[in-house]
Write a structure and sequence with these properties.
Splicing factor Cactin C-terminal domain-containing protein, alpha+beta, 17% strand, 3 domains, 5-stranded antiparallel beta sheet, Cactin_C, 53% helix
Length: 307
Amino acid sequence: MATRSSSSLRRILKNKLKKSRTTHESFIWKKKVLRDFALGIDFEEADDEETRILERKAEIEKLRKRREERAVRKAQREEEAEARARARARAQKDLPEPEREGEEEEEDRSMLIAVVKEQQRRIQETMGTRTREEDAEEVKLLESQSHDEYRAKKPKYTNRVHTGYVWNKYNSTHYDHDNPPPKFVRGYKFDIFYPDLVDNSKVPTYTLEEDKDSNNGDTCIIRFRAGPPYAEIAFRIVNDDWDYSQKNGFKCTFEGGILRLYFNFKRYFYRSLNFKLLDLAELLLNCIFHFVNMSRELINLNDFFLM
């Protein structure tokens, strides 16, 4: 993974400061920004996620305000209907005696107090009760928000492929350094970043699985697992025998929240049949030469004893 320059860090800090001024934040945690920058976290993606969360909270707040306004309008309509009913009832009454006007005022005042109390009670009940559509809408928003907050996220990673040439007799005959043969894969290097693991006691693991899309079995799937809050991540690699020798570059460690897996494939060196036959012929000639020398020494010993 290519290292980012100090100019990009200054640009990120400048953007953070500008955003804090527009959103009236109290301060910028510079140490956290530096730590996220060192871990290679994408600040634009994090800012977009934070913006989406704030938008969802604003939508929920709008729903609550809309529900309160609806309850107030309903109570006002009921109050107006009751006032019209009282006016209609008074119009129907025939009270010719003037001495009953004081009694009517007292009665209207008591009725008004009762209506106000009933209105307050209904407002409280309406605020406490919600329609099914409003409940379903708010629950859906809360579920989507919780799902976005706690869903498994894809870890950051870097993967490199180690390639090279095979200079066997055929390639040496038909190719040269100006016109090299085709490259082949010698190994891989994986760096998977898990800085925010929930359970740090569990070390991330990897498994090799069969590649169902490969017809000849030339490739396989390597899958990395670490646990929450990170999702599984898989890569398609060449299916070959690994060389687990540290001398040849094998490494599998988990330090500082980074899983490092480096490995190379085994290399087999074959000698042609002609060279093997020459070696066998040379061995036979050496055996014959030693046998002749031993027979000569035995003949000389026999002559010595006969004399």
